[in-house]
Amino acid sequence: MSGNVYIYILVMSLITYLIRMLPLTLIRKTIRSPFLRSFLHYVPYVTLSVMTFPAILSATSSHWSGLAGFITAVLLSYKGKGLIFVSLASCLVVFLLELILV
Predict the structure, then answer these.
(1) pLDDT confidence bin for 55, thresholds 50/70/90
(2) Given a cut of 70, is residue 44 above it in pLDDT?
(3) pLDDT by residue (tens digit) across 63-92?
């Protein structure tokens, strides 16, 4: 890495600042489009899902145990179980499959 590191940091901070500040300064009126409002409502959830799902599969020694834990969590949460129960059940499924598969 040749060059001044401080210049790189300054450029990265300016770009990050512009990305965050431009929508606030350019869009001053309320958004009335139902489609756009719905789209913007779900952006944080989609971003979190996209970042979390690969980590779920690669956190274990076998992708199959990670997938089984994920499916367990989805099914239990769909049935309305609480967060602690879903987490513990998913961890238990992953633990048992890791014992079997390894």
Answers:
(1) very high
(2) yes
(3) 999 999 999 999 999 999 999 999 999 999
**Confidence at residue 40, expressed as pLDDT on a 0 to 100 scale:** 86
Q: From the CB of residue 37, how many other CB atoms can be counted at a distance below 10 Å?
A: 11
> Cβ of 51: how many Cβ atoms within 10 Å?
9
DSSP state, residue 30: P
Q: Which two tokens stand for residue 42?
A: 């779900």
Written as one string, the DSSP assignment of 3-19 is S-HHHHHHHHHHHHHHH
Decide: 64 and 97 in contact? Cβ < 8 Å: yes
Cβ burial 67-85 (10 Å sphere, 16+ → b, else e): ebbbebbeebeeeeeeeee
**Is residue 9 helix, strand or coil?**
helix
Query: Which pair of structure tokens corresponds to residue 48?
Result: 């979190």
pTM surpassing 0.85? no
Contact 68, 97 (CB under 8 A): yes
